Amino acid sequence: MYAQESDVAALDSVELSERLSAVVRESMPWLVTVSDAEASVPERPGKWSAKQVIGHLIDSAVNNLGRVIRLQIGTGQSMPGYEQVAWVNLQHYSEREWAQVLALWVALNEHMAWTVGHIEKAHLGDVGSVAGESLTLGFLIEDYIAHMLHHLRLMRVWMGIGDKVE
């Protein structure tokens, strides 16, 4: 987990949506300065490239969007985790053009933000489990955003672009 759980009563779906949108909006100016060649180079041997990191965040969006919907349909849902390395490898993000990877990441997160912004406040406290870990819908969303920030910060550092998401 990447986030500390907030008091669910203090959460607001519109604010969560705006927070997610801001991460994407504030990251794009530096992400688009990365060339396709730079995005193809792994951080170091055995690690992912920027294309693969953003691909991983795409996979996170796909999986978490499903979780956001399922938790609103019925509390107590038990949802599996996913094999993150296999998802990245099987989708061959490293072979796609950087602009295509970024466009997909932006589109999925714009849709995620749209969906999150329409969650009824009462549903933010709905409880389910992911890979055996119990969590609320509100925490799932907060952790999704924190996970994205974590990877973007690390990527900026190892790519020499800076040490934080502005």
TrEMBL record:
UniProt xrefs under Pfam families: DinB_2
InterPro entries documented for this protein: DinB-like, DinB/YfiT-like
All residue ranges annotated as the DinB-like domain in the record: 25-155
Gene3D superfamilies, sorted: dinb family like domain
Protein name: DinB family protein
Originating organism: Tunturiibacter gelidiferens
